Amino acid sequence: MNSFPRILILGSAGQLGQELLRSFAGTGEIIAAHRHQADFTAPDQLRALVRNVSPSVILNAAAYTAVDRAESEQDIAAAVNAQAPGVLAEEALRANALLVHYSTDYVFDGSKTEPWVETDPPNPLSTYGKTKLAGEQAIQHIGGRHLIFRTSWVYGPHGHNFLLTMLRLAIERNELRIVDDQVGSPTSSLALADATRTVVSKVLAQPSSSPALWSGVYHMSCSGSVSWYGFAHAIFARAQTLLNGKLPVVRPISTSQYPTPAPRPRYSVLSNQKLSEQFDVRLPSWESELYRVMEVLSCAQSSD
Question: What topology does CATH give the domain 6-159+187-224+268-284?
Answer without folding.
Answer: Rossmann fold (3.40.50)
